[in-house]
Design brief:
mainly alpha; 4 helices
């Protein structure tokens, strides 16, 4: 899309921090969740910075917006999974709060990036 590296994007940097924090947090889950909730959360946590990076590396603004939208979806998925962990008693609100705050920041930044592009992203039918 442009010469700026995805590594220079604040949203990518925050998403990388989030992924690292999620991996640390997941050590608290019971072993029976290793292949269920834990796997889903790792996948979503990795998808956020990965899609931001892939989108930034494309040749068009429309493609970038598409990948940002995928990252936003993964963000919402991960947020939901954190709340599930709290509801199941695996983690406290205090334990997940730093990740929720990063998710909120990432969501706000990606929303601004999409809106400022001037391209309305539509979900394919």
């Amino acid at each position: 899309m442009n010469s700026q590296s995805y590594k220079d994007l604040i949203v990518w940097q925050k998403a990388m921090t989030l992924a690292s924090e999620i991996y640390k947090l997941l050590k608290r889950l019971p072993s029976e969740e290793l292949y269920a909730l834990s796997k889903q959360m790792r996948r979503a946590a990795v998808a956020i910075p990965s899609n931001i990076a892939e989108g930034q590396s494309t040749d068009s603004t429309e493609e970038f917006i598409h990948y940002l939208s995928i990252a936003r979806g993964a963000r919402a998925e991960l947020e939901t999974q954190l709340y599930i962990c709290e509801k199941l008693g695996y983690m406290t609100v205090e334990q997940i709060q730093p990740c929720l705050e990063l998710l909120d920041e990432i969501g706000r930044i990606t929303a601004v990036m999409i809106k400022s592009s001037g391209i309305e992203h539509k979900t394919p039918k």
